[in-house]
Design brief:
86% helix; single chain; mainly alpha
């Protein structure tokens, strides 16, 4: 159901291989300056990654709360339609505001982002393994604080993957299931026709 594109695999394997090779070369083979550059890159990428991940997680939650509050307001206004003090313009404004917030919420997690982060279980296992190798190398090299930040970044990325998978299920799972059933049906018809 969840898939990971070949481009994502290639990028992840290339980046992880380069960073791991730099850490190993600097730590075990004492190649000058390679280890310091790798640690510097890891610090920046980890901090920026944690910041971006927190933003991806916090923004939709805040928008969802705003949408829920507006839904309650619209429901309250609709329930008060029978009273003499009812203002239809107020209901129209509230509904317009609700629709605008829903559009912003959809843009916070667009389709491309959902499909990118709803990764396959194989990619998730690879992500865990490659990060564990980096954690171990950092701890051996005497950088436990950076290793701790990498663990925090990994856990946050797992939360993002979970949210993306939930969004994927809500938005695309039914369409994917229908597409798969249609493909199976076409395959069965083609097989049946080939026997004639």
């Amino acid at each position: 159901m969840y898939t990971t594109s070949l481009k994502t695999w290639a990028r992840a394997v290339a980046v992880d291989s380069i960073l791991t090779a730099a850490l190993v070369a600097g730590l075990f083979y004492a190649v000058p300056h390679v280890f310091q550059v790798a640690v510097f890159v890891l610090w920046w990428s980890t901090i920026l990654g944690i910041g971006a991940t927190l933003l991806m997680l916090i923004l939709p939650v805040a928008l969802e709360k705003a949408v829920e509050a507006l839904q309650e307001e619209v429901a309250f206004l609709k329930a008060g339609q029978t009273f003499a003090s009812f203002d239809p313009d107020e209901l129209t404004r509230a509904e317009k505001k609700l629709n605008d917030r829903k559009k912003v919420l959809e843009k916070a997690w667009p389709e491309s982002m959902v499909r990118r982060f709803a990764v396959s279980n194989t990619y998730l296992a690879y992500h865990w393994f490659s990060d564990a190798v980096v954690w171990i190398l950092l701890i051996v090299a005497g950088h436990p604080i950076l290793a701790s930040f990498k663990v925090i970044g990994f856990l946050l990325s797992c939360i993002v993957i979970g949210v993306a998978r939930k969004q994927y299920t809500e938005r695309f799972a039914e369409a994917d299931k229908i597409d798969r059933e249609m493909a199976d049906h076409r395959k069965a018809v083609a097989q049946h026709n080939s026997y004639k």
